[in-house]
Amino acid sequence: MDDSPRTVAERYWAAEATRDVDQVLATYDPAATFHPVTGPLVGHDEIRTFYEGMGDTFPGLEFEIVHEVSNDTEASLEWEAVLIDHDGNRYPIRGVNVLEVRGGKVVNMRAYYDPTQFPTPKRTES
């Protein structure tokens, strides 16, 4: 099995696109650290909260890796994605994930993107 950073990242993105949080977490080492713009999350339990929240707000996701700089264990991957909300509205975003892979699992990932590209979720009236 190819455990290059690019291949592991492609497995990660494919799982995220289906919004299968368990499959997303399967790409992470149990003690991994994930750094979204909101700050570091350590371990599967903390990382799960990020992906569950994203899937709740944006049940659809399309992605493409558009540029890569990598070696055997690390990669910087520039990506373009489209978040899709419950009403089918599409929100294009761009960013870079910098990841380190060991044993076919992400041990550290930093996600760089502009959070102002994300729409404010609608609040429902009670």
Identify the notable features of this structure and list them briefly.
six-stranded mixed β-sheet, alpha+beta, 126 residues, globular, Nuclear Transport Factor 2, Chain: A
Distance between the termini: 50 Å
**CATH fold label:** Nuclear Transport Factor 2, Chain: A
Hey, roughly how much beta strand do the residues contain?
35-45%
Q: What is the topology, as strand order, of the major beta sheet?
A: 2-1-6-5-4-3
| Structure summary, number of beta strands | 6
Instruction: Round the mean pLDDT to the nearest integer and report it.
Output: 90
Biggest sheet overview? 6 strands, mixed
Number of helical segments with 4 or more residues: 3
Q: How much helix, percentage-wise, in residues?
A: 25-40%
CATH architecture: Roll
Task: Give the class-level CATH name.
Answer: Alpha Beta
Would you mind describing this structure in some detail?
- The protein is α+β, with helices and mostly antiparallel strands.
- It has three helices and six strands, in the order H-H-E-E-H-E-E-E-E.
- Strand 5 and strand 6 form a beta hairpin.
- The chain is globular and about 40 Å long.
- The termini are far apart.
- The model has no long low-confidence stretch (mean pLDDT 90).
- A six-stranded mixed sheet has the order 2-1-6-5-4-3.
- The chain has one domain: Roll (Nuclear Transport Factor 2, Chain: A).
